[in-house]
Amino acid sequence: MKRVSGKSQRETWKYLREQEVELDVLPRGGHPLWAMLYPARYEVGMANLGYQTIISEMRTLGVGIERFFSGRLSSLSVEAERSISDFPLISASIAYEPDILTLLSVFRGWGISPCPEERESQGQPVFGVGGALSYINPLVFSGVADYVVLGDGEKVVDHLVREARRYVRDGDRSKFRRALAEHPSIYVPPLHDRIILRGEKVHKHRNIIDNLDDARGKSLWVAPSSVFGKTVLVELQRGCRRNCSFCTIPSSFGKPRTRSLARVLEDVSSVDFLEGVQVGLVAPETGDYPALEELLSAVDSLGAAVSFASLRVDNINEAMIKSLARSGRHTLTVAPEAGNERLRRACGKHFSDDLVIERLSMASHMGIRKVKLYFMMGLPGETTSDMDDIARLCGRVRSESGLQVRASVGVFVPKPMTFWEKVEMISDDEAHSRKDRLNKLFRDGPGKGCRVNFQEPREAAVEFAIAWKGVSPANKFLSYPRGKASFPKPGLEQRELLLEQLGLLGYH
């Protein structure tokens, strides 16, 4: 493996460590040494609550877990600036399909094979995966992972750590895999893929924590250099009751569960000693939290700022806007998804254009200055007029609310485990054509005066291809291209095969 060192790199990690505030006193060091990778920059990875939660769980168990991120410092750990070559175990938290390409790039930089069989024959580390993508399609990691944690990882960690310690002691990787395979929420591709290819059931299921008060629920660190700045992340909810046609959360992340207000307030109060800290509320839809107004009042009484993720228009109310304005935040993010009510209802978002204008006008009157509006193009049943309505709606928001408008338009990607899982994705040529049309409408038409940016169609095509990757006899990630130029779009036959394989695993 390649070894990277250097005084300037160590000083950089030292600077970031000194910025961080660790919120709980947990054991340091420990056994075995375990690398925890987030395949993105430090700033992005440290804004992921799931990543911090699993690190907290493993440190509590006395594991010597250390953080790794992509970038020029990827071969050195944040905690001790240890080389990746010192770690017999590597795990990664994967949230999005393109993160897999970053993962492969990091492995190349480390000199580690992405293939489990090659890692075993060359004495390289065992590699495991968890994170949001493993909830949706764990088979995407076939050919690269020694194991995949299915669903909420907190209750799987005890078994994983116990067996990992035995493996480090005796060095028997095959025995380690068999022991992991005994857990109902761990998928072991080198063992289970052979069963799936024979058309036989594996009988696995996602682990779901029913009582979220049992989960950690807050950041382990406040990391000022993260994309959220000096923020403590506090979890409100997992799962979602909305059932939007394009969304993976309702079918893949378990039934809606909320943390009690008492537990949330306990977490918020624990950072009262930090000056200038912001409370970042984490939920699929913050406005659905039943005790939100009481929570916002409590955060305000502490003098802390508050932030939300993207909000549903029909959930926006005065209490939420007041909290944002008191926090000195002047930008609101909402996702209408479509430019008109007909297509929006098909998505599962049942609110009108007039309600969009009404709620955003209220926000403007209460101190919000900017709005980010997220849309998709290529939705099922979309017409040219529907595309024009995106620009029309943005123009209405700008003229009637007085807000500065920035629109972001992505390409609709059909995902496994959604209502629209078998819908055809538009071609790259069609995506470019719609992008060009919208650009003109924002430049010279009804969207004039609003800013707009687009997801590149090729990026969406890569996301589509990876999302539908299943098990095959020659399933090597080494065959994945290094760039984004050679990903064929999966046809209906390939998608039906994946859904069948997920069924054999215990999904769908």
Describe the model.
It is a single chain. The chain is an alpha/beta fold and 508 residues long. It has 3 domains: 191 residues, Cobalamin-binding domain (Rossmann fold, 3-Layer(aba) Sandwich); 100 residues, 2-Layer Sandwich (Transcription Regulator spoIIAA); 139 residues, Transcription Regulator spoIIAA, CATH 3.30.750.200. Helix content is 39%, strand content 15%. The chain is built from 19 helices and 17 strands. The strands form 5 sheets. A 6-stranded mixed beta sheet has the order 3-2-4-5-6-7. The N terminus is likely disordered.
In short:
The chain is an alpha/beta fold and 508 residues long. 39% of the residues lie in helices and 15% in strands.
Keywords summarizing the entry:
508 residues; alpha/beta; Rossmann fold; Transcription Regulator spoIIAA; 3 domains; 6-stranded mixed sheet; 4-stranded parallel sheet; 19 helices; 39% helix; globular
Write the layout of secondary structure elements.
Blueprint: H1 7-19, E1 21-22, E2 33-38, H2 42-45, H3 49-60, E3 64-69, E4 89-93, H4 99-110, H5 116-121, E5 126-130, H6 132-136, E6 147-149, H7 157-170, H8 173-181, E7 186-187, H9 189-197, E8 221-222, E9 231-235, E10 237-238, H10 249-252, E11 257-258, H11 261-269, E12 278-282, H12 292-301, E13 305-307, H13 318-326, E14 331-337, H14 341-347, H15 353-365, E15 370-377, H16 384-401, E16 404-411, H17 428-444, E17 451-454, H18 457-467, H19 492-505
Parallel strand pairs: 2-3, 2-4, 4-5, 5-6, 9-12, 12-13, 14-15, 15-16, 16-17
Antiparallel strand pairs: 1-8, 6-7, 10-11
